[in-house]
Design goal:
By secondary structure, this protein is an alpha+beta fold. The chain contains 3 helices and 3 strands. A hairpin with a 7-residue loop joins strand 2 and strand 3. Helix 1 runs parallel beside helix 2. It is globular, with a radius of gyration of 13 Å.
Length: about 100
């Protein structure tokens, strides 16, 4: 996602810095859809917890989305990351994907 807006850049940098503390990389792709490990489409954003190698990902698809939609996707996936690392019950609930 390209922007020159200082507030937006600051917001993205804040999320990147926080994610980096947990070994999570933040990336944007020009595609319209992202896919889970099993190959199923997951829309425009995904949080992938760290693997045994200690690397996780927040990915946001920017194709066909407005800047606002991309930022909402980023924030949404950031919350999932925090739920995971804070060991919040909802993240590990069997109803989690139904709520999504």
């Amino acid at each position: 996602m390209r922007t020159r807006n200082k507030q937006i850049l600051s917001f993205i940098e804040k999320i990147r810095n926080e994610a980096e503390k947990y070994g999570v990389k933040v990336s944007f792709t020009k595609t319209k859809t992202l896919y889970a490990k099993d190959g199923s489409p997951v829309c425009c954003g995904i949080f992938i917890p760290p693997t045994s190698a200690g690397i996780g990902h927040i990915r946001v698809a920017t194709g066909g989305q407005s800047q606002a939609e991309c930022l909402l996707s980023l924030a949404h996936e950031f919350i999932h990351m925090r739920q995971f690392f804070n060991k919040e019950k909802i993240y590990f609930s069997s109803d989690y994907f139904k709520l999504e």
